[in-house]
Specification:
alpha/beta, 7-stranded parallel beta sheet, 11 helices, about 35% helix
Amino acid sequence: MKKIRIGIIGVGNCASSLLQGIEYYRNRKESDAIGLMHWEINGYKPSDIEVVTAFDIDSRKVGLDVNKAIFSRPNCTTVFQPEMPGTGVTVQMGKVLDGVSEHMASYENDYTFVISKEPEASMDDVVTTLKNSGTEILLNYLPVGSENATKFYAECALNAGVAFVNNMPVFIASNPEWAQRFKEKGLPLIGDDIKAQLGATITHRTLTDLFRKRGVKLERTYQLNTGGNTDFLNMLNRKRLASKKISKTEAVQSVAAERLDDRNIHVGPSDYVPWQDDQKICFLRMEGKMFGDVPMNIELRLSVEDSPNSAGVAIDAIRCCKLALDNKIGGILYSPSSYFCKHPPVQYSDDEAFCRVEKFIKREIDN
């Protein structure tokens, strides 16, 4: 099989887990490939993915081989594949814009953002790099709140003629104008805001759907999350959270029997706890009424390593994107977006989204 040539925007913890995972599964068989939803998609295994270009703005990563940069600070995710071969792909200086919150420079520890003194990339620079490297799919791993930076790179993808997977909550796939532009170019688009393999959002959605199916009236719920990585540090700036809260809240509201009043639902990042590093802890509470209006409640604590939790989903999103490229399917990939993302253009239930993705992979439906 040919390789799937990807580009990465933001060589952070999520990119680290993704690239470690590609190498980790390289010498494994399907029978012992724990943690994957699909071993093959359209004939492509995880090891058929290769990074051919990468952009970051931190001086500790710019100029390094990407497989070395993934272990540089401020990255702090679990190292489950310590032996990473050189790729020959150097992390290039990207465009800063709003990719860094101003408060990030004030932390006097490993998480201080040290912006490289290398000249920032122009749109022409990025487009030329994408074309010359043969990039087919561009993955967006920018921090929450990077509205302008995400739009800059989405524009670069359009100009370079590459597919786009938007793993963070700036609305590209769920924005009709952007979606139409990718459709006109015949370029696959998956988004927005990647949904973890088994994280806070998918767990909350599953329980909300269970309430609906079992006739329990959901009256109030909250989801509180803490973590110690740069994602949570970045989100201390509440001004950057508008789209994130919309994305996470709508993911839950969309599967409820009745939409809750804003007062009765709180879903979102809560606080930064430095010593947690990449461990994310979710506290979930759901209150409702059962038969005879008898009250009940559920309280749940979920602890996961945040970045590996998204990597298996990203590997499937990449391969579904490649399937679309191979079959000349452009525009929004509705079924993969709904199954893999928190804020897709169309919200299906997780059961329906799963069935649609299986049909998409088998080429029984185009989208």
